[in-house]
Amino acid sequence: MGGRGWERMPTVRLGGAGAASAGVASRRREAAELRQVSSQTVRLGRVQPQAPSHRTIYCNDREANNIARFKGNSISTTKYNVLTFLPKGLFEQFRRVANLYFLMISILSTTPISPVSPVTNVVPLSLVLLVSLVKEAFEDWKRFQNDTAINSTPVDVLQGQRWESISWRKLQVGDIVRVKQDGFFPADLLFLASTNADGICYIETANLDGETNLKIRKALERTWDYSLPEKAAEFKGEIQCEQPNNSLYTFTGNLVIESQTLPLSPNQILLRGCSLRNTEYVVGAVIFTGHETKVMMNSMSVPSKRSTLERKLDKLILTLFGGLFLMCLIGAIGSGIFINRKYYYLGLFGDVEDQFNPNNRFVVAILTMFTLITLYSTIIPISLYVSIEMIKFIQCTQFINKDLHMYHAESNTPALARTSNLNEELGQVEYIFSDKTGTLTRNLMEFFKCSIGGEAYGTGITEIEKGQAQRTGKKMNEVNRSESSDTAVHEKGFNFDDARIMCGAWRNERDPEICKEFFRCLALCHTVLPEGDESPEKITYQAASPDEAALVTAAKNFGFFFCRRTPTTVMVRESHVERMGNIQDVSYEILNVLEFNSTRKRQSVVCRYPNGRLVLYCKGADTVIYERLADANQDIKRLTREHLEQFGSAGLRTLCLAYRELTNDLYEKWNEKFIQAKSSLRDREKKLDEVAELIEMGLILIGCTAIEDKLQDGVPACIETLSQAGIKIWVLTGDKMETAINIAYACNLINNDMKQFIITSETDAIREAEDKGDPVEIAHIIKDSVNHDLKRCLEEAQQYLHISGQKLALIIDGKCLMYALDPNLRVNLLNLSLNCSSVVCCRVSPLQKAQVTSLVKKGARKITLSIGDGANDVSMIQAAHVGVGISGLEGMQAVMASDFAIAQFRFLTDLLLVHGRWSYTRLCKVITYFFYKNLTFTLTQFWFTFQTGFSGQRFYDDWFQSLYNVIFTALPVIIVGLFDKDVSASLSKKYPELYKEGIRNMFFKWRVVAVWAFFALYHSLIFYYFTTAASQNGHNSSGKIFGLWDVSTMAFTCVVVTVNLRLLMACNSITRWHHLSISGSILAWFVFIFIYSGVMTPYDRQENIFFVIYVLMSTFFFYLTLLLVPIVALLGDFLYLGVQRWFFPYNYQIVQEIHRNELEGTSRTELLEIGNHLTPDEARSYAISRLPREKSKHTGFAFDSPGYESFFASQQGVFAPQKPWDVARRASTRSKRTSQR
């Protein structure tokens, strides 16, 4: 029954097609029956209801379409609406453990067992929630305004026989609309008619993929007449198409009009978000609306990423929970033991409340536990998350986005932080995964060399060839340009010179006919659109990729000028064909275009010459073309293969060109199958590929092209700097192994001093298996080979590391990588890779890029960064901890999926070594300081508990506790998180080894937390016992002894002053903002207490401290305590920081000492420049003699220390051996020895 149901679906559609003009009533019945059939069918197959696999749309008939209840065209990108904002917003906030904890504490504080007023916990929680919700509301309001503007955009819709303007939101599926030039398409449209000849239009897809190249779209010839409203009103077609999906580049459907079924392809679809160019207006029928349009279905948010530091912060919060529980448990046990009627002055006789009933000590202990939880709740810093969010947001918007060092003037592109969650992650990256084309290279393609009929042409020398010559010591004599100036041409996309084939000289070559085929293949096999005047000097080419534009430009310079295109013809102005100097315009009919995709890796066109000759021209990757060549011409194949290897080793991108002569009978039979595949509603792309295979065979090789893609500026220097910073860089590319290796050499990723491990599928055993064609045997042999190679390389790598310490490099191709990622082999792959300084993966797919990234991220638990510029890099970018997109020439899809966007690879130096490192050090300081100040405050309350019989009596006033985190200590820590700077940006790049402290997480280890915890314990003891002991014999001016609120106010004053001054001691740089925030916070406390103590209301417990501050400030005790307590408390910190800086300095502290008295931007590199007249030993001795013998400006101690010497020497590339009398042992020296062990 289920099978019959599914079989009936097409039958119903065909019936609807036949009755396309039978009236509205019949259409309603058709639609109702279709919906009924599809729903019944799905229920039979599955328990859950499922939408039908296709949809039927009746054009220009709203009533018939209403039955299907298609979605409207209004869009909403907001997270909330008026009803859901409060519940959903609060839910989002309480997903955070700290906020949920404080909600529970606030609820507990309203019960009788709470020693503090509810305001103590409710006020800070309310402030935090208010700030967060206002931020959410503001962001959502901006989204709402943007949505409203888009939904209100006017568009012309056919009403009767005239165009009427309505807003986008009122548009419905099936409507006929008119879009004018430079206008945006309001929905996904079926292109019906255009004002241009032959029903074509030009669109720009920049909003979809960032590509500014114009694309051509062509309407079906059957609908060209529907451009006028009177004619369009007669259009009553029926569209049968796929359900809405997120595939931007595919579309499957049919148009049924007057019983005729016409296949639809992506060429007839105009997607929402694209704009119309060079066309007066177009007419289209709405297919998908609103959130069902392809662009909206692609607008997925970037996967939510949490930084490693934030996950470690969760562990610290859990540790604080443990500390809180322990403190409460001690208090609860003490309360159960202490409670006794012998303390008659407590009045525990008769009926007493359960919390103080000596008859039930267990209940006393339990209730005291809850009491103390509310009392000690401040140990968890409630304002920490809000402060961190604020700091990260400002770091992104004001520092990263506005850094002129990361601004690319040529493209007017600044750096862009698309998320503020991962700032500090940039300071801990250990592995970078990079694409090659457009990321390391410029993606500006130039036709550089070629091979035609087994003869290589082109005299230029690439940057990589020059680099190879320098490494091997060879001299390369480049052709003198002045001698070949008559034939040399250099324009955008073309940098070629060879007098043998320029200016018609190809007619004198050994085989001019094959040269002619080569040039015609370049001029005809493409999808390029010409723009401007039809003259070689003024014409511009709009191409889908820079490679295509370069090839067409090459054809023009060889005398085959592609000057005009119509939907069915290509006009080529050919020179020197019949005879030298002869120029003629030749029109070639383009019968079929077999488009390029990542699976086919080739593109073909079937064209008819004016004389009737039928030819298939094909261009594609060498591996794909060679598989489809005829058996003849073995010499040309061999020679071309050699040229391909030569071009690849020079770092050039290669394509093979081939052709095939076709007979009319063969073409007609094949074309029938092609039309059937093109009309198929199911698996159309697969069927088209299968049909293409039938004709793309028996090809004759013409030759190959070689295109140069030069390195971006500053890439080698950037990679060298990042390597010195301890970052390992992997290149993942789809290029051939030779090309990838030479690019790696050119950008200093690999050098001759490295031991290279190469794992490739290009071995004799694997080739023999591939010749036999048994896929099972091929897989078995490759897997065994990869397994053997991995084990061998791993053993050799361990030997090299233990014996010589030589740097290692791994090169592996895509086929081998596929098997190396097998669960049984991936451990060996990971171990080998982690031992290598550089890894190059060639011929890899986008999925493999993501798998390699995940392997290191999850297997090695290292922090990873992926950087790329194309759509094929999106999966890799999303798989890494941090994704960086290059806003280059391959569109904006990589940028849209990234966390950070930059214009050039070299900007990674500033992004990581400057902003990343600063963010990491600042946030570590913010988090540990928060931990310290809250622990200090809570422990003073804890010590007081021991003197109150563990009763839960509060030491501080409720408002003191409420405002401690949100007013009196809030602003200074934010200022430190924004402006603290250990070394300047230039020094961060000059000493890249400073970055290793972030990789090793030196500033957020448990040891660092323990030091802060120790001083919190020490300070709390000083605050509590100094103030209480000093006040035991004290009295005010009226002779009264000091009470609880006098002592607690004095202690709280000392706490506020001391913790703010302690933050000042932790600062590396002090600005006016530090002074203002710290003095302002202390002043805010005094202003508050003056006002608070001067007013009394009978409705709360404020009367406890009425006039207290005035009484205190009238005594000498107050001023003496305020002077001595902070000094005694901070004396220990001062001694610890001094000893640490003297004998155990961090790397950044050494750099601070060197440049203590230097102005920003001065350089000391001149001190280490060595003259060429010195021998290597003399040069090293001279360099070491000029290294700083550091005198610390902070301590007065002078060192002549090999520890310092080795640090500076390693920065300058000078070898300085360690000596046994190394006194000042630095952290970097210890870590280096540890790594060697």
Automatic annotation (TrEMBL):
<dbReference type="GO" id="GO:0140326">
    <property type="term" value="F:ATPase-coupled intramembrane lipid transporter activity"/>
</dbReference>
<feature type="binding site">
    <location>
        <position position="735"/>
    </location>
    <ligand>
        <name>ATP</name>
    </ligand>
</feature>
<dbReference type="GO" id="GO:0045332">
    <property type="term" value="P:phospholipid translocation"/>
</dbReference>
<dbReference type="InterPro" id="IPR001757">
    <property type="entry name" value="P_typ_ATPase"/>
</dbReference>
<feature type="binding site">
    <location>
        <position position="437"/>
    </location>
    <ligand>
        <name>Mg(2+)</name>
    </ligand>
</feature>
<feature type="binding site">
    <location>
        <position position="619"/>
    </location>
    <ligand>
        <name>ATP</name>
    </ligand>
</feature>
<dbReference type="InterPro" id="IPR032631">
    <property type="entry name" value="P-type_ATPase_N"/>
</dbReference>
<feature type="binding site">
    <location>
        <position position="849"/>
    </location>
    <ligand>
        <name>ATP</name>
    </ligand>
</feature>
<feature type="active site" description="4-aspartylphosphate intermediate">
    <location>
        <position position="435"/>
    </location>
</feature>
<dbReference type="GO" id="GO:0000287">
    <property type="term" value="F:magnesium ion binding"/>
</dbReference>
<keyword id="KW-0812">Transmembrane</keyword>
<feature type="binding site">
    <location>
        <position position="843"/>
    </location>
    <ligand>
        <name>ATP</name>
    </ligand>
</feature>
<feature type="binding site">
    <location>
        <position position="733"/>
    </location>
    <ligand>
        <name>ATP</name>
    </ligand>
</feature>
<dbReference type="InterPro" id="IPR018303">
    <property type="entry name" value="ATPase_P-typ_P_site"/>
</dbReference>
<keyword id="KW-0460">Magnesium</keyword>
<dbReference type="InterPro" id="IPR032630">
    <property type="entry name" value="P_typ_ATPase_c"/>
</dbReference>
<feature type="transmembrane region" description="Helical">
    <location>
        <begin position="1076"/>
        <end position="1095"/>
    </location>
</feature>
<keyword id="KW-1278">Translocase</keyword>
<keyword id="KW-0813">Transport</keyword>
<feature type="transmembrane region" description="Helical">
    <location>
        <begin position="1047"/>
        <end position="1064"/>
    </location>
</feature>
<feature type="binding site">
    <location>
        <position position="873"/>
    </location>
    <ligand>
        <name>ATP</name>
    </ligand>
</feature>
<dbReference type="Pfam" id="PF16209">
    <property type="entry name" value="PhoLip_ATPase_N"/>
</dbReference>
<dbReference type="GO" id="GO:0016887">
    <property type="term" value="F:ATP hydrolysis activity"/>
</dbReference>
<comment type="similarity">
    <text>Belongs to the cation transport ATPase (P-type) (TC 3.A.3) family. Type IV subfamily.</text>
</comment>
<feature type="transmembrane region" description="Helical">
    <location>
        <begin position="1004"/>
        <end position="1027"/>
    </location>
</feature>
<dbReference type="InterPro" id="IPR023298">
    <property type="entry name" value="ATPase_P-typ_TM_dom_sf"/>
</dbReference>
<feature type="binding site">
    <location>
        <position position="869"/>
    </location>
    <ligand>
        <name>Mg(2+)</name>
    </ligand>
</feature>
<protein>
    <recommendedName>
        <fullName>Phospholipid-transporting ATPase</fullName>
        <ecNumber>7.6.2.1</ecNumber>
    </recommendedName>
</protein>
<feature type="binding site">
    <location>
        <position position="548"/>
    </location>
    <ligand>
        <name>ATP</name>
    </ligand>
</feature>
<feature type="transmembrane region" description="Helical">
    <location>
        <begin position="964"/>
        <end position="983"/>
    </location>
</feature>
<dbReference type="GO" id="GO:0000139">
    <property type="term" value="C:Golgi membrane"/>
</dbReference>
<feature type="binding site">
    <location>
        <position position="435"/>
    </location>
    <ligand>
        <name>ATP</name>
    </ligand>
</feature>
<keyword id="KW-0472">Membrane</keyword>
<feature type="transmembrane region" description="Helical">
    <location>
        <begin position="926"/>
        <end position="944"/>
    </location>
</feature>
<feature type="binding site">
    <location>
        <position position="436"/>
    </location>
    <ligand>
        <name>ATP</name>
    </ligand>
</feature>
<dbReference type="InterPro" id="IPR023299">
    <property type="entry name" value="ATPase_P-typ_cyto_dom_N"/>
</dbReference>
<feature type="domain" description="P-type ATPase C-terminal">
    <location>
        <begin position="895"/>
        <end position="1145"/>
    </location>
</feature>
<dbReference type="InterPro" id="IPR008250">
    <property type="entry name" value="ATPase_P-typ_transduc_dom_A_sf"/>
</dbReference>
<dbReference type="InterPro" id="IPR044492">
    <property type="entry name" value="P_typ_ATPase_HD_dom"/>
</dbReference>
<dbReference type="InterPro" id="IPR006539">
    <property type="entry name" value="P-type_ATPase_IV"/>
</dbReference>
<feature type="binding site">
    <location>
        <position position="437"/>
    </location>
    <ligand>
        <name>ATP</name>
    </ligand>
</feature>
<feature type="binding site">
    <location>
        <position position="435"/>
    </location>
    <ligand>
        <name>Mg(2+)</name>
    </ligand>
</feature>
